[in-house]
Amino acid sequence: MPPSNWPKSGIPFATPHISSLVESEVAAEVVRKIAEATVANVPQENYFQFDHGIIWNWLLYDEDGKAREVTGEMQRKSAGISIKKQKVTQQQSDLIQESINSLCCDMGNQMNSSIYEKMKENAEQCGLTFEIPPSGISIEQYFDVLSKCHFSISRIGELNWPSLFNIPPHHQEKLQLDLENAPQEFKTKLAALLATKVAEARQIEETRLARFDSTE
User: 209 falls in which pLDDT band (50, 70, 90)?
Assistant: First the structure.
């Protein structure tokens, strides 16, 4: 008579040890794929990582260097998958990867939706939303949008260029082409605006860094 801990016919990962190993590998793969689908392309200074608790506080500084306390709170997200019993009993090899992909896609979409919703909320508060005409974004509208944006400097000293979201690809291509073929007078005006924005961003960063300078 075979030992009781031998895998049973038709039931994958029947032993606790094997089942535990599979669960650990699946969990690690899920975390990696969700990270790739969400925060992988977001600068680290724009999100928080922590090991305990659901609420955190930090100081937000305005352009004048004044600080105010801001509170953040985790949001619970959940995703479910449906697995056919036949696939389990037949121990189909693609079942695990299919389940991981389905779970990560659902969870990633929810998390990205939350990110974009928060970005939209902030943009509306700052007056940085705009309507896209059927003909697309004109170079004058693009100039007006940039004039309202604040540029920033990353932690490694690189310039963070403002990004325009939710613009159809064909409108993006048209805008890029129109900017390349714009009159020289407009290009000069745009270059002057960008130079001013960059100078303002660097001044704000210098002011921020000065708070950490110490004198002996």
Answer: confident
Least confident of 9-18, 96-105, 131-140, 147-156: 9-18
The owner of tokens 């300078």 is: 213
CA angle 68–215–59, rounded 5-degree value:
10
* Dist CA 173 CA 203 (whole Å): 33
**DSSP letters spanning the chain:** ---TTSPPTT-TT-SHHHHHHHHHHHHHHHHHHHHHHTGGGS-GGGS---SS-SEEEEEEE-TTS-EEEEEEE-----------HHHHHTT-TTHHHHHHHHHHHHHHHHHHHHHHHHHHHHHHHTT------TT---HHHHHHHHHH---EE-TTS-EE-----S--HHHHHHHHHHHHTS-HHHHHHHHHHHHHHHHHHHHHHHHHHHTT----
- pTM: predicted TM-score of the whole model, two decimal places: 0.60
Alpha carbon distances (Å) from 184 to 36, 97, 172, 181, 189: 41, 54, 21, 9, 9
Q: Which residue has the higher pLDDT, 148 or 216?
A: 148
Question: How far is the C-alpha of 11 from the C-alpha of 119, rounded, in Å?
Answer: 47
Mean pLDDT, rounded, for 68-96: 80
Q: How many whole angstroms separate alpha carbon 107 and alpha carbon 30?
A: 10
**Residue 12: per-residue pLDDT:** 55
